[in-house]
Request: fold
Amino acid sequence: MLVYRIAILGLLTFSGLYAQTGKTVFLITDAEGVAGVCRQELTDPENAEMRKLLAEEINAAVRGFFAAGADEVYVWDAHDGSRSLSALTIHPRAKLVMGSLGPTMLMERKFSAVAFIGQHARANSSAAVMAHSYSSMGIQRIVINGKEVGEIETRAALAGWFNVPVILLTGDQAAANDLHEIVPDAETAVVKESLGYYSCISLSSLAAQNLIEEKAQAAFQRLGQIEPYKIEGPVSIEVERTTRSTLSPDRPLPPETERVDARTLRFHGKDFMEAWLRWQGN
Ligand SMILES: [Zn+2]
Reply:
């Protein structure tokens, strides 16, 4: 009987690790949108200055979310191979998500909200610090249903598929604009103004942290008023690679996928998720 009880207890504890019973915020973190990060070498995951700037901004957002009543905050190290964050420097009450995630990015766990921290604008934006879409080495542009997009739109749509709203973005003005185009009510903390790809006017890290904490708190207080972003109806996702990532002509393609030209594939789906999984599985 005792063994049985222990087993049940173990099961409950185990499943408790996975079910989001309270209000959980999922932070997607990146480097190019952090205050004081405006040169390529600062985005190296080994760069000590960037690691500190990024961790402090994340922790400011975590403080804001907890102050506004969040029960849990997950922080996903989503920049360049997931090597920029450390359990030593993350807010003591936050949980660190390390490594690459599957195509649904844990969204099936029904988080209460998603936030982008240190986010950059989509590729081919002007006046946007280090604007790119996923990989400046591998991808030239991504187009969904005829509109150019980046990580902000694709990940917001993925969260929206699971009814999860994006409530906050921190980054430069261009990244904030990208989110506001699709989620007009989201809070944004603009920590720098871009003057070009590698030039900007940045807030100090402390000023950025204060702004981010305040905006995170405001965003969480408005939970329920900020709509999830959904792309309705059939979806096509066109992915144009860079010249150095030109496709092999004999590469097998998933169903409902067109080869548009030597560097471009177009994935079709009856809805966003079908097209998304075709791209991600390719
Ligand atoms: Zn990125």
Q: What stands out?
A: Residues 23-133+150-221 form a domain with the Rossmann fold fold (CATH 3.40.50.10780). Residues 30, 120, 151 surround zinc ion (CB under 6 Å). Residues 1-16 have pLDDT under 50 and may be disordered. The chain has two domains: 23-133+150-221, 235-280.
